[in-house]
Design brief:
The structure holds 3 protein chains of 3 kinds.
Chain A lengths: L1 H19 L3 H21 L3 H26 L12 H23 L15 H11 L1 H23 L3
Helix pairs in contact in A: 1-2, 2-3
Chain B lengths: L1 H34 L20 H15 L10 H16 L10 E4 L2 E4 L8 H11 L1 H10 L3 H32 L4 H7 L3 E2 L3 E2 L2 H4 L1 H14 L11 H4 L9 H26 L8 E2 L2 E3 L5 E3 L2 H29 L5 H31 L5
Antiparallel strand pairs in B: 1-2, 3-4, 5-6, 6-7
Helix pairs in contact in B: 1-2, 1-11, 1-12, 2-11, 3-4, 3-5, 3-11, 5-6, 6-9, 6-13, 9-11, 9-13, 11-12
Chain C lengths: L4 H21 L3 H26 L3 H31 L13
The chains are: A mainly alpha, B mainly alpha, C mainly alpha.
């Protein structure tokens, strides 16, 4: 209980830091923190394997890529994180509306009782079974996706004007 | 009671890592001196050298950390103060918890309680270590950036590129090991290595996955940024790389993270490829030698022997890394990237494919 | 378990809205991409929370796929930003108008 509120408050704070900080480096670091906290809440939800993958994939690779590009381009801190243009104001209002809507939906929604999970729920074996037996084709297709992404990234980054 | 046991186990795991780190500092100073034909680290001596034998190790162990923590902490003028302060912690803290999932013995039996000698019994232990090690990159990259120095910055960029490149080789080497044992729990992997091949050879990972061992060791050394892969801190090009602008206790934290990484690589090599705490032919009730010989050993002694075996193996592989560091010249950066992407990656992929086919052929299809 | 699933869902909704606001407000393309990551992760959290409530592993399997797609997306996205930066010297979304006429 306390663990959840602690994680939740920190997560919201660091998510806000991501979008409000002027310096992209700080944004990226706040993003790592947010993703790490999401991994922690995965552990609280009995999804250990997914939590570890989250840390390795996001913190270990994706955000490092962000930092690497920010440093490579030497992106300076902006004067203002954002200016409230007309589009921006509308966007902010929409985002607030979205938060309220989602919140209301969740509160109105009446879920079934949460039971204690059977032994082995969220285990590597069970996940592997679902992944390789039931979702075999999508799994293989992701490898094609990753290959295309790698080739695309190399082509984009190497092309000289 | 259970809480107490968990606490003591966590304490032991933390103490192992701290002691190994400090000992490695001394081993590296003395070891490098040995390799370079010097005496090395002989000033700090207890009782001023009045004893017939040298007790320098005791004093070096205390003097080195004391010296480092006493030094003035200098922050460069235009540095980002917060991130400059954060970086050493980001480098060292994730590494502290990694030893929690490394088993340092089988079980300790006291009366009726059976204690598993592993601080945290995590089903996904191997991934946990991998994740925490990958979090260690942030210390390097932030430290390099926040110092506001060209040398540190270059070191940070080099370090981050190197570490994410070699993580792939590291991961692929581990995948084939996981395929062999069918589990991510390090204790289960260590237990599986207690069996015998053809009744004689202990079934250690090194006999199943020799190529994975080589790949893992190379990638692990590159991951810990040590020579011949110490491009991020190459002193002849970048002063001290990403920690050029650090001093005193913060700099010592970066050094500590280096040594902990050595210890982690050694612990993983031990656990995955050399049987972890296994002593050949030693089981819970005693030695079962090939040929039907049996030698009963009390349970407590068995546990003690296993923990000892783990520590001895750990230090052998730490020493091996220090040996490599002081005897190989530094690589060129393009060669480093070539080794990672054009050698380790294809070899790792091939190893995974061959292991998968072999596992299937030996165990048959068992698709649910 | 401690808290009910709704708590996690509300948390995920908040993170999603924050990410959404980031995409709409910020003009730095790299930060926009980060905000997209926030949204993807909020959805991941929802999947895992509902998987826990339904006691079905399908939610966790989907998260696995979302992570793969996110990794691919970031790699390609950042490569595009690098290419744009080498031509235009900017990472501001307002100045990038290659497809606008």
């Amino acid at each position: 209980m306390i663990a959840f509120y602690f994680v939740a408050l920190l997560m919201i704070a660091s998510a806000l830091t991501v979008i409000l900080h002027r310096n992209p480096i700080y944004s990226a670091l706040a993003l790592v923190n947010t993703l790490f906290l999401i991994a922690v809440s995965f552990v609280l939800l009995d999804a250990e394997l997914i939590a570890m993958l989250q840390v390795i994939v996001y913190a270990g690779a994706i955000v490092i890529l962000f930092l690497f590009v920010i440093m490579l381009l030497n992106v300076e801190a902006e004067k203002h994180a954002f200016r409230l243009s007309r589009a921006g104001t509308a966007g902010l209002a929409l985002a607030l509306l979205l938060a309220v809507e989602l919140g209301v939906l969740v509160v109105v929604w009446e879920p079934a009782r949460v039971e204690t999970p059977p032994a082995g729920f969220g285990s590597t074996e069970l996940l592997a079974e679902h992944l390789f037996a039931r979702s075999f084709l999508p799994f293989e297709l992701t490898s094609v996706l990753l290959l295309v992404a790698v080739v695309g990234a190399v082509v984009m980054a190497r092309r000289k004007a | 009671m259970e809480l107490l046991i968990a606490f003591v186990k966590a304490l032991v795991a933390l103490l192992i890592i701290l002691q190994v780190t400090v000992l490695l500092l001394w081993i590296e100073r003395k070891g490098s001196a040995l390799i370079q034909d010097r005496v090395g680290a002989n000033r700090a001596n207890i009782f001023g050298g009045l004893l017939p034998f040298n007790l320098g190790i005791v004093n070096t162990l205390m003097a080195d950390p004391l010296k480092l923590f006493h030094k003035e902490d200098i922050v460069p003028k235009d540095a980002d103060r917060f991130l400059h302060w954060l970086a050493p912690f980001a480098a060292v803290l994730p590494l502290f918890v990694t030893f929690a999932v490394v088993p340092f013995g089988d079980v300790l039996v006291i009366g009726d309680t059976v204690i598993n000698l592993q601080a945290a019994e995590l089903e996904v232990g191997l991934l946990f270590i991998l994740g925490m090690v990958s979090l260690g990159v942030y210390g390097v990259i932030i430290g390099g950036w926040a110092s506001n120095s060209r040398y540190a910055f270059l070191g940070g960029v080099r370090g981050s590129a190197q570490m994410i490149s070699y993580e792939i080789g590291l991961g692929l080497a581990l995948v084939s090991v996981v395929l062999t044992y069918g589990t991510l729990d390090l204790q289960a992997i260590a237990r599986a290595q207690g069996e015998l091949m053809w009744g004689v050879i202990p079934a250690w990972g090194v006999f199943y996955q020799p190529l994975a061992l080589v790949l893992f060791f190379i990638a692990g050394m590159a991951e810990s940024k040590r020579a011949p892969f110490d491009l991020p801190e190459a002193e002849s090009e970048l002063v001290a790389g990403f920690y050029t602008e650090y001093s005193g206790s913060k700099q010592s934290m970066f050094m500590m993270s280096d040594f902990i990484e050595i210890a982690i690589v050694a612990a993983l090599v031990t656990t995955l490829f050399f049987g972890g705490w296994q002593v050949p032919y030693l089981y819970r009730d005693g030695f079962h030698l090939p040929g039907g010989l049996f030698l009963a050993v009390p349970s407590l002694l068995v546990t003690l022997l296993q923990v000892l075996a783990f520590l001895v193996k750990l230090f052998i592989f730490c020493w091996l890394q220090i040996l490599v560091r002081w005897t190989f010249p530094r690589m060129r950066y393009d060669h480093l990237m070539m080794l990672g992407w054009k050698r380790l990656l294809p070899l790792g992929l091939a190893n995974v494919a061959v292991s998968a086919v072999l596992v299937l052929a030996l165990e048959g299809w068992t698709v649910a | 378990m401690g808290v009910s699933i709704e708590h996690y869902l509300i948390l995920a909704a908040l993170i999603f809205a924050i990410g959404c606001a980031g995409v709409l407000l910020r003009r730095n393309v790299i930060v926009i991409l980060m905000s997209v990551e926030l949204m993807l992760n909020a959805v991941n959290l929802t999947f895992v929370a509902l998987a826990r409530q339904q006691l079905s592993m399908d939610g966790q399997v989907i998260v696995f796929f979302v992570m793969t797609v996110a990794a691919a997306e970031v790699a390609v996205g950042l490569a595009i930003f690098l290419a744009i930066y080498s031509q235009r010297r900017t990472v501001n979304a307002d100045d990038i108008n290659l497809l606008r006429w």
